[in-house]
Design goal:
Number of helices: 20
Shape: globular
Order of helices and strands: HHHHHHHHHHHHHHHHHHHH
Number of domains: 1
Structural class: mainly alpha
Number of strands: 0
Strand content: under 5%
Length: about 500
């Protein structure tokens, strides 16, 4: 079993760097997809992801509790969660395949896509196994999850090039690339956790997780309810509208990668809850999330054209989704605080009464409020207000942004009630100021349409941001030096082993 002390800066930076690398690999993969298929087929690609999401709803239920059990050194948690998730994955995969003849007609998908809808059943099983293995690694060495991300992304791109470009398999090639890349990732995780097979399965843990699972499913279902907005977009706005939204989301989601730099906070809070760790994590996340959001907004036209020239008109949608992604980065930290500070399962026993009275349950209820606000509004816009695919994507993005902005504030108050911490508002203001200076430069310089020039201008903007920030914020310089030093020390230790 993996073990070791968790360092917020080092672990967070490894995961974040892996996410930054995945920006390049993800962009390369998306370029191969978008240039291999039409905008309409790209909408089908997005629908595949939407449908898949509903069949992996339960994949994180047991891993959620397993991470907490492993972090608190309850022996046998790792092997128990792996076998438990496999037992769930098999029937869920069978159910998906049995429902496939009804799913495709429901979304007006023709039989030419039957193969790709069928093979994602393999991905369903893989995701259940991946989540189980990742849960146990994340509890002790979260930086290894970052390494796993790099392995997955690199493998996915290499396979994508072979299957989509060389073999011209197009959409099927994209799906198969992900499936094979997940297989490689799972093998890496198994290598890290091989010692867990010497542990004995403790079905008492599984019983506790089953007992608590209604609360997890309550939260998961709430989160997925809002995703019906994308199904509405596909059904009532059309495949092209879903393709437009998917293109904008591809770029905006890069901003959300910044939240991964605070991912080590969760296992840290499970072992010891200190408010200074929260403030430190918010500073780190803000330091990267703010300029990335500004960059996505200012250079949105260049990024979208790289995907496909017809996506240039989607820039207003990208602007809304980029702001939403920035807000969700902070929301992610608040959610981590709420979950990480709860002690209701500290003794490996989970009480319904304690869960129902906890801040965690209140946090799990918020997505229902979100869905209650989003779904009727989106349905109204798509059926009575919009007249074209671009407007459909825009109004869905606008609705989601408005609702998410309200919920971020609520999550902050719940998190602060769980463990009081100071929001580093002065630091965030400096990040905004430095990002504004970068934005001025990006506004003045003509925006390129070639990939190489776009990457070059992006790097110039990043250098400008960090130069301004280093001048106006001494503490940010200190934080970066501290984290970089930890990273260098860790690399030296590994090199000497």
């Amino acid at each position: 079993m993996v073990s070791g002390e968790i360092r917020l800066g080092y672990s967070g930076l490894i995961i974040f760097l892996s996410r930054l690398i995945s920006v390049g690999t993800g962009l390369a993969f998306t370029l191969m997809v978008t240039r291999s298929i039409s905008a309409e087929t790209f909408g089908v690609y997005g629908n595949l992801s939407d449908v898949l999401g509903y069949f992996v709803l339960a994949s994180g239920v047991f891993p959620f509790w397993a991470t907490r059990f492993v972090a608190r050194n309850h022996v046998g948690s790792s092997i128990t969660v792996v076998f438990s998730n496999i037992l769930i994955a098999v029937p869920v995969t069978a159910i998906y395949l049995s429902l496939l003849p009804f799913i495709m007609p429901l979304f007006n998908v023709t039989s030419e896509f039957a193969f790709v809808y069928a093979i994602i059943s393999i991905q369903i099983f893989e995701i259940y196994l991946q989540n189980a293995l990742e849960a146990t690694i994340y509890a002790k060495k979260p930086q290894c999850v970052g390494v796993g991300i790099m392995i997955f992304e690199t493998t996915k791109v290499c396979l994508g090039y072979v299957l989509m470009i060389l073999l011209n398999m197009r959409l099927a090639g994209a799906i198969l690339s992900v499936i094979f890349a997940l297989s490689i990732l799972i093998l890496y995780y198994l290598r890290l956790t091989v010692s867990m097979f010497r542990e004995k399965i403790n079905w008492n843990y599984a019983k506790e997780w089953v007992k608590a699972s209604p609360f997890n499913l309550y939260g998961i279902v709430g989160q997925k309810l809002s995703d019906f907005a994308l199904l509405f977009l596909f059904l009532y706005g059309g495949k092209i509208a879903r393709g437009y939204y998917g293109a904008a989301l591809t770029i905006a989601s890069i901003v959300s990668y910044s939240s991964s730099i605070g991912s080590a906070l969760y296992p840290r809070l499970l072992s010891k809850s200190e408010s200074k760790d929260i403030t430190f994590s918010v500073k780190l996340v803000s330091m990267f999330a703010v300029p990335m959001a500004f960059g996505a907004i200012m250079m949105g036209d260049s990024f979208l054209v790289i995907l496909r020239s017809e996506y240039s008109i989607v820039r207003p949608v990208l602007t809304l989704l980029s702001i939403d992604a920035l807000l969700l980065c902070f929301s992610s930290i608040f959610g981590t605080v709420i979950s990480g500070t709860e002690k209701l399962d500290a003794n490996a026993v989970i009480s319904w009464k304690k869960v129902a009275k906890s801040n965690l349950f209140l946090f799990l209820t918020l997505p229902y409020i979100q869905a209650l606000a989003i779904l009727p509004t989106v349905y109204y816009f798509l059926n009575f207000s919009v007249t074209n695919a671009l407007d459909a994507a825009f109004y869905v993005a606008l609705t989601i942004l408005v609702v998410d902005a309200t919920l971020v504030s609520i999550r902050y108050f719940i998190a602060n009630r769980s463990l009081h911490f100071k929001m580093p508002l002065k630091h965030i203001a400096k990040h905004v100021l430095a990002s504004s200076g970068m934005a001025v430069l990006l506004y003045v310089v003509p925006h390129p349409t070639r990939l190489s020039l776009t990457v070059a201008l992006t790097l110039v903007g990043a250098c400008t941001y960090f130069f301004i920030l280093s001048v106006i914020d001494g503490e940010s310089r200190a934080i970066l030096r501290k984290v970089t030093k930890e990273l260098q020390e860790a690399l030296q230790i590994k090199a000497s082993v």
